[in-house]
Design brief:
Blueprint: E1 3-8, E2 10-11, E3 14-15, H1 17-33, E4 36-44, E5 67-68, H2 75-83, E6 88-94, H3 103-117, E7 121-125, H4 128-141, E8 144-147, E9 150-153, E10 159-165, E11 170-175, E12 183-187, E13 201-205, E14 233-237, H5 246-255, E15 259-262, H6 264-268, E16 289-293, H7 299-302, E17 310-315, H8 322-325, E18 328-331, H9 334-349
Parallel strand pairs: 1-4, 1-7, 4-6, 6-13, 7-12, 8-12, 14-15, 14-16, 16-17, 17-18
Antiparallel strand pairs: 2-3, 5-13, 9-10, 10-11
Helix pairs in contact: 3-4, 5-9
């Protein structure tokens, strides 16, 4: 494997926490396979040109016509990515905004960069935008796309991608060595970061890619439910939760120190805000503990939950599909079970 590329979502000069976790995973893969690890950052045009004082080994990429450069305004970002394990930090200039990270904003530029760097593996943090970006990028490159797999090491030291299939009853494992094409992967959060040098080679990659002029950033504030992606405890309310029992779900999430989510059915009924929907096409989560209240456990819902999550399900239907995949199941009405759970939590902490 010659090259591993990690797309970095940054807030100004600070890389996102999930991006640093993806970079750490890329560092481990690159080190085990002898590959070069690139951290790619998309910035508005002119935002990466500046003073190359901190470049350790400034050099160009002749085959790509890229010019070595770094920006003093982005020095903290470069240092953080170097410390996170990156061998090379690549800045790609955009004609439009770099946020939000969607195909319409940065996709064509990222595809053009990949066409020049030719990475065998592209890693993206599993944010809402990355699911749009990753799938379209793979299609543009003719690459394979794997959403939120478990990364394992094979008997020969090769990288193996593992995913649950057929409703979680089976696990499919695919080695990167068995694929005859590049692979684009979105990685869920809660992965260990890596530690590298604070000196990374910095490159300014000039690409020709049109941006969608119809996309305009109207609001850059944090959305309700933004913490779901990084929460270690998530309580999700399903179709069995009513407007009257919704406060019980809120209380349980608060008592567990977690975030509250909802299924599509509950959001469509107007009980839960749309920003807290968990499912394919909405938010994906990777908690340690996942408490399900009154959700049947559809494939569209569970596909957005990390297979490593410990599921505790409460449902009045003893035959609900969620009880077949849960580690622990409680059969009963939410109005009866949740108050007892809250009382047990209070007693334990007393």
């Amino acid at each position: 494997m010659a090259c591993v590329l990690v797309h970095i979502e940054a807030d100004g000069d600070t890389p996102g926490a999930t991006s640093l976790e993806a970079l750490g995973e890329g560092r481990r893969i690159a080190s085990s396979s002898g590959a070069t690890l690139y951290a790619l950052v998309a910035v508005p045009r002119g935002g990466a040109v500046g003073d190359p004082r901190r470049v350790a080994r400034a050099e160009t990429l002749p085959p790509f016509g890229a010019e070595a450069a770094t920006a003093s305004a982005h020095q903290r970002l470069v240092d953080a990515l170097g410390q996170g394990g990156a061998d090379k930090v690549v800045f790609v200039d955009l004609d439009g905004p770099a946020r939000p990270a969607l195909w319409a904003t940065i996709g064509p530029a990222l595809a053009a960069a990949c066409a020049q760097l030719r990475p065998a593996l592209v890693l993206l943090p599993a944010t809402a935008g990355s699911h749009d970006l990753g799938a379209r990028l793979a299609a543009r490159l003719g690459a394979a796309y794997v959403a939120e797999p478990v990364l394992e090491q094979g008997p020969r030291g090769e990288v193996v991608l593992s995913r649950q299939v057929y409703g979680g009853g089976w696990r499919r494992r695919t080695s990167l060595e068995d694929l005859d094409r590049a692979v684009v992967v979105t990685l869920p959060p809660h992965r260990a970061e890596a530690r590298g040098s604070d000196e990374a080679e910095v490159l300014l990659l000039e690409v020709k890619a049109a941006t969608d002029a119809r996309v305009k950033l109207l609001d850059d504030g944090a959305a309700d439910g933004a913490g779901l992606g990084r929460a270690r405890v998530v309580v999700v309310a399903g179709g069995g939760v009513t407007a009257a029992s919704w406060p019980l779900a809120e209380q349980l999430a608060a008592a567990l120190g977690g975030e509250l989510g909802a299924t599509r059915a509950l959001c469509q009924r107007g009980v839960a805000p749309p920003a807290r929907e968990i499912g394919v096409g909405a938010r994906h989560v990777a908690p340690v503990l996942y408490v399900v209240l009154g959700a049947s456990g559809s494939a569209a819902h569970l596909a957005a939950v990390s297979p490593d999550a410990e599921i505790v399900a409460v449902d009045k239907d003893a035959d609900a599909p969620i009880l077949r995949v849960a580690s622990y199941g409680i059969v009963g009405r939410i109005e009866d079970v949740v108050p007892r759970m809250l009382a047990a939590l209070r007693q334990e902490r007393a």
